[in-house]
Recover the amino acids of this structure.
């Protein structure tokens, strides 16, 4: 196998793990969204959180079906940006007491892990593109 082929399989292995983690995170996002709606009757901010938090996994799933390296990189890039937006909403929710510090830590840590993995994949795919 060439270095590119080994690198490709390494990236795809990360994507498969990432797809599972992002799906589990999205399930948690939906549950937290429902909880905020029920307890706070706040609609606008949680809706943005719901969109960005569930979009991470949706874009990763799309990346798995990419038709080119550029398409794959684009979808991973969008997922990465959505993870950053989700972390923003979580910080805002914590500071405005929409969620507890404990909930913040749980969800922020998960979103941060997704961000780090996505960034590593982006770096790897962009480096390989230059080779």
């Amino acid at each position: 196998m060439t270095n590119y082929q080994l690198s490709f399989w390494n990236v795809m292995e990360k994507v498969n793990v990432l797809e599972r983690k992002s799906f589990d995170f999205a399930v948690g996002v939906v549950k937290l969204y429902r909880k905020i709606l029920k307890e706070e009757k706040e609609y606008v901010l949680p809706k943005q959180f719901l969109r960005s938090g569930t979009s991470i996994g949706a874009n990763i799933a799309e990346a798995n079906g990419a038709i080119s390296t550029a398409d794959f990189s684009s979808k991973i890039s969008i997922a990465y940006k959505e993870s950053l937006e989700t972390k923003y909403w979580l910080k805002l929710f914590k500071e405005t007491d929409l969620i507890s510090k404990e909930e913040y830590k749980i969800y922020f840590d998960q979103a941060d892990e997704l961000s780090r993995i996505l960034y590593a994949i982006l770096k790897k795919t962009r480096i390989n593109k230059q080779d």
